[in-house]
Each structure stands twice: as C-alpha cells, then as structure tokens.
Amino acid sequence: MPVFTSIFLAALGLSLLSKFWLARRHLQHVAHHRDKVPPSFASRIALEAHRHAADYTTAKTRLSFIQNAQEALVVLAFTLGGGLQYLANTSAGLSESPLLQGLILILSVIVISAVLEMPLNLYRTFGIEKRFGFNKMTPAMFIADVLKQSLLGLLFGAPMIAAVLWLMAEMGEYWWFYAWLAWMGFNLLVLSIYPTFIAPLFNKFSPLEDAALKERINSLLKKCSFAAEGLYVMDGSKRSTHGNAYFTGFGKNRRIVLFDTLIARLAPEEIEAVLAHELGHFKRRHILKRIIMLFALSLGFLYLLGVLMGAPWFYQGLNVTTQSTGTAMVLFFLALPAFAFPFEPLFSLLSRKHEFEADEYAARQTDAATLSNALIKLYRDNAATLTPDPLYSACYDSHPPALQRIEHLQKIQLTP
Q: 71, 272, 278, 355: which is the annotated catalytic residue?
C-alpha cells in the first residue's frame, strides 16, 4: 500500500471517529440535562420548550452520524474505490479537449454527490424540520429551489471552473496566483449581485412598512454612522418558522433584511438590539477580516494544489492513474476535509470571539438586557439547546453557548 494511501486513510478514519465521539458526547450531555431548565433561564423558558429543543438537537445530531458516514464512504468510493478514475476515463471518451474533459469530470462529481445527499436533505426538511414544527416548504417548492440552485451553479460555477482549469493548463508555474485573482473577483461579483439578482429568485423582499420600527432602525443606523440602501422584509415564513436578520451586499448596495418571522416574534426594541449586534460585526470589521482570511486560505490551498498537481504519489495514493488538471482539483477537494478537520475548532473559536464582540457593541448602542431578552426568545423559538456539550460546542459552534452569551451580556450591563 502506498505511503500516502495509509496517511489518507488514517486522517479520514481519525476525523470520522472524532466526529462520532463528539456527537455521542453531545447526545449524552443534552439527554442528561433534558428534564431541567438551567437556573439562569428557568423564569423565561418553560420545561416543555427546553425538552422540545433537546429533542430537536438530538434528532439533528443523530442524523449527523449518517451524514458523516456517508460523506466518508463517498470520498472512499471516488478515490480508492476507483470512481473518479472511471469518470475520468468516461470524460476522456466524450471530448478530446482536456479543458472539456476536466469540466465534465468536475461537474459529474458535483452532480453525483448532490444526488447522493438528496435523501438526507429530504429527510432533514420533511422529516426533522416538519416534525418539530419548523418546515413550511412544499415538495414543489423544494424541487423548484433545487432547480434554481442547479441553474445558478451552471451559470456561475461552470464558467469559473472552466476558467481555473484553463489557467492551470496555460499559465505555467504560477497559475495558482492567477487562479486566486480570478477566484477573488468571482466572489466579489457574487457578493455584489446577490442582494438584487440571486436572493430574489428564492424569496420576496418588500420594503419595511412599519413606520415606527423603520424610524427606530434609521435612528440606530444614524447613531452608528452606517449607510444602507434600504430596509427589507423577507418572506422567510414560506419556507420555515425560524427567525433571523442579516446584512447583505457591500458598499452602496448594502441592505438590511428582516425575516417576517423575526418581526412577528420580537418587540421593536428587541429587533433594534438584534440589528445592533449585526452592525457590530461591520463596525468591528469582522466581515472584512473573514473575507481576508478566506482569500488568504484560498491562496494557500491553490498553492498547495499547484504543488500536488505535479506529484505522482498524490494520484497513486488515491488510486487515480490519470494525471490531469481536472483529476488533481477533484482529488484535492475530496481529500482536504480529512486533513482540515483538526483546524475547525480554531475557526469556531474565532467566530465565537466575534460574536462576543458584536454583542458588546450592541449592548453599548442599545441595551444589554433588551438584547438578552431577544436572544432568549430566539433560542426558545428556534429550539436551540441551552445545554450543549462543552467540547462539542467548542469544536463546532460558531456562536457561544446560550449561558455564556447571556452571562457576558449581564456583565456588560453591570459595567459602567
């Protein structure tokens, strides 16, 4: 067995076992605390709602066992199972152009992976989400979303993949740098057109009509020196009862979007506090920092791909004999998650740090108690568990656990 095969199998096995172990810890911790609301929340969250959140978390975590196992099996089937080599041979028979061969190969892997993931996505939407009262989608709407996403993928993704394959073949030793520039441009393009072109394909966005709420939000924006193109309400309720709010776009195209479910559940001052939190991400430059980090990582990954593309052991170790730009790209992104898993806690830690900072900013601009009340309502209505396993949360959660977040806000409230 080639050395890299052994290394790959070890990395894949360790990452899968780690995910199973963390999920098992999480299930046990949630079950242990299912029948008692944490004292800090006992006066505001009923035991029935707490149990509902525990059961919802348990259902999602159990599904993750199947999802993680399936992902590992798909990777093994494409690599050591010979699936990718079979697709490479098939694409070679469909075209004499190396660029078209690579494009057909990559799109084939994407389509096959999406089809294999479909049963779990259907169960998540029409099984778990429906059972716990969140899903509002119909099968027709689900199919329409899949078709729209597929068409958008062809419209934007296929040309980008073709451009990268061309750069890999034609731009010599430093192709990875030119590909990185193209990737940055592509991401900035998508960010700029998302609010006005992509998002409206899936949801209806209407100007905020509540005059009092609009005045309150505009006062907050003025106070924070933040300019937005408009305030919009999104019909999120047609797909789910989950509530949310977000900023989208950049520059003069920035928009504030409120889910209609959020407006229905929170008081005006609580909505203001939630938006102040989102503003905190902008004012503390979290969005810019994340974009810079994404671009830096993509540059490193493309450079590494450039090194591996010319290494015969990389292909042999993953049971591929066809050395091409297309097979190199697919193999790289199939193998990467197994080696990248140990770094996930670092990104989660950074994200939680940003959430604390955004909470602090919101508490200074509005009121810490009001933000706490809003968050508790969102935890309750979205059935987010109040008692995640600490280690599981540290590895996966982008937001701090509820107890830590509320305690942090209480400390801010007591600080002059």
A: 278
